[in-house]
Write a structure and sequence with these properties.
With 333 residues, this protein is an alpha/beta fold. It contains ten helices and 16 strands. It folds into two domains: 2-173, Peroxisomal Thiolase, Chain A, domain 1, CATH 3.40.47; 180-332, Stage V sporulation protein AD (Peroxisomal Thiolase, Chain A, domain 1). Strands 1, 2, 3, 4, 5, 6, 8, 9, 10, 11, 13 and 16 form a twelve-stranded mixed beta sheet that branches. Strands 7-12 form a two-stranded parallel ribbon. A two-stranded antiparallel sheet has the order 14-15. Helix 1 (50-69) packs across helix 2.
C-alpha cells in the first residue's frame, strides 16, 4: 500500500468479484431499470414497517452479492455495511442472521464509498480474503426521520432530492478478475454553514470538490485520465456547483462528469426535483449501471465519488449546520 496525502494506491489487485442491486418500485420505473437485479413491486417489501422492509432489502442484497460471487458464506471474512437510520439498524438487522463478523459504518450517502475503501484496505493489508460491503436507504423511512412524515403531504422544495429505496452490495476479493479497486482518496469533513435539510446538495458539493482536488493532486492526475467521474447524489444543483468550483480551480469536468442522483430518475416524468439521494443512490447506480459497463469494457477507468451529508435528526433540530464528506474510489478494468 502506498499512501500520499489523503490518497492510497493499493499494491494488491482488489477484485470486485460481484455486485448486487435491489431497488424499490419507483427506481424500477426510472431510466436504469434494466440494470438492477431485483425491482420490488411493494415498497414495504412484504413487511409491516418501512424500516423492516429496508432491513429485508439489505439482507437479500447481501445474500445475492455472495451468490453472484460464486463464494460460500463461510468464505466471507467481514461485512462492512451502513445506512441512514438511527444506529444503522437496517444494516444490523439485515446482517444479523449471516454469522459473519460485522463492521457497521456511517458515512451518510457516501457510505458505499467508505465501505469499499475500508474493505480494500483490509484486503490489501492481508487481513482478509473476501469482504462483503453494502449500503441501503428507504424513501419513506428517511423522509420520516429527517424531514416530514409522509402523511402530512408536505410540499417538496425545488432543491429537495428523492431518497432512493434499495441496497447495493459487493464482494471484494484478493482473487478474481476485474474490475479492480486500485486506489482511494478519503475525504475530509467540509462545513460551509448550510442548514437547510431540503438543500443537501449545497452542503455536499464543496466536500466533493475538496476530495476531487485532493485526489488529482495526490495522484498527479487530470480529469481526462478517467473515462467517467461519478459523484454520489448531488443531483442537478450539486453537479452545477461542482462544475463551477472545479472550473475555478483549473479542472474541466464538463466532458466526463455525471452524478448518480441525475442518472437514477427521470426528473421530469418522475417529479424528483433535484434528483436522487440516500445511501442506496450511489450504491445501486454503481452496482447496476456502471459495474455492468465496466464488465463490458464500455468503461475502463472511473473515479467513483459518493457524497454524504453528515447530519442527524437531533443536530438539525438543534440548528446545527450540515457537514459534508466525499470519498473517492478508483475502479479499473
Amino acid at each position: 500500500m502506498k499512501k500520499t496525502g489523503q490518497s492510497i494506491k493499493f499494491q494488491e489487485k482488489i477484485s470486485i468479484a460481484s455486485m448486487s442491486s435491489i431497488v424499490g418500485p419507483m427506481e424500477g420505473e426510472g431510466p436504469l431499470k434494466n440494470y438492477f437485479d431485483v425491482v420490488l413491486s411493494d415498497i414495504m417489501n412484504g413487511e409491516d414497517s418501512w424500516e423492516k422492509g429496508e432491513g429485508k432489502i439489505t439482507a437479500d442484497a447481501l445474500a445475492l452479492a455472495i451468490k453472484k460471487s460464486g463464494r460460500k458464506r463461510e468464505e466471507i471474512d467481514y461485512i462492512i455495511c451502513g445506512d441512514l437510520l438511527n444506529q444503522s439498524v437496517s444494516s444490523t438487522y439485515g446482517a444479523r442472521d449471516m454469522g459473519i463478523p460485522f463492521f457497521g459504518v456511517f458515512g451518510a450517502c457516501s457510505t458505499i464509498g467508505e465501505a469499499m475503501t475500508l474493505g480494500a484496505m483490509l484486503l490489501d493489508g492481508g487481513f482478509a480474503q473476501n469482504i462483503l460491503v453494502g449500503a441501503s436507504s428507504h424513501f419513506c423511512a428517511a423522509e420520516k426521520q429527517f424531514r416530514f412524515p409522509l402523511e402530512l403531504g408536505s410540499q417538496r422544495a425545488p432543491t429537495s432530492s428523492w431518497t432512493v429505496t434499495g441496497c447495493g452490495a459487493a464482494v471484494l476479493s484478493r482473487q478474481g478478475e476485474g474490475p479492480y479497486i486500485t486506489g482511494a482518496t478519503t475525504g475530509i469533513i467540509v462545513d460551509l454553514g448550510i442548514t437547510d435539510v431540503n438543500n443537501m446538495a449545497a452542503a455536499m458539493a464543496p466536500a466533493a470538490v475538496e476530495t476531487l482536488r485532493a485526489h488529482f493532486k495526490d495522484y498527479g492526475a487530470k480529469p481526462k485520465d478517467y473515462d467517467l467521474i461519478i459523484t454520489g447524489d448531488l443531483g442537478y444543483l450539486g453537479k452545477d456547483i461542482v462544475l463551477r468550483l472545479m472550473g475555478n480551480a483549473g479542472y474541466d469536468l464538463s466532458n466526463n462528469y455525471t452524478d448518480c442522483g441525475i442518472e437514477i430518475f427521470n426528473r421530469e416524468k418522475q417529479k424528483t426535483r433535484n434528483g436522487g439521494s440516500g445511501c442506496a443512490c450511489s450504491a445501486v447506480t454503481l452496482a447496476g449501471c456502471f459495474f455492468d459497463k465496466l464488465k463490458k469494457c464500455e468503461l475502463n477507468k472511473i473515479l467513483f465519488v459518493p457524497t454524504g451529508a453528515l447530519m442527524s435528526q437531533t443536530s438539525v433540530q438543534q440548528g446545527e449546520s450540515i457537514p459534508g464528506i466525499a470519498h473517492a474510489v478508483v475502479i479499473e478494468t
